[in-house]
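In response to reviewer comment 3 from the previous cycle, which asked for concrete evidence that the modeling workflow produces usable outputs, we include below a single protein chain processed end to end. The sequence was submitted unchanged, and the resulting structure tokens are shown without manual editing.
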Amino acid sequence: MGPDASPFALPALRSLGELAGTQPVVIVDSREQDPLPFARLRTQTGALITGDYSVAGLETLFAVERKSIADLVACCVNQNRERFERELHRLRGFQFKRLLNIGVEEEIWRCKYHSNISPKRGRDGHPERVRDPL
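The workflow returned the following structure tokens.
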């Protein structure tokens, strides 16, 4: 299997027509405490290696890690920082990976989170804070 090869195999062309009416199923990690609502897609709870959301059949290729503003700010300090960096490191192995931030900029500026990090530092970050992109 080459470096770009996927363990997920598409069906033969003659059976692609059978897929026309199918919709992807969103896998929600069983540890997700307050899952996002998906009005147009079916969801299923499952244990994901990393991330909070994936697509059935693509769990080793597709991952979305969701963070609220409060969670994201909390990830910048102490042991939470190390855990967050491990999460980001695991995401690097996925072909499709996203960090989904839930909230609005106003939450940062009005300090609507629990942390000792100032809004300016939380928004501007630190030069060494983000070393490796996903």
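The longest strand covers residues 62-68. We consider this sufficient to address the reviewer's concern, and the full set will be provided in the supplementary archive.
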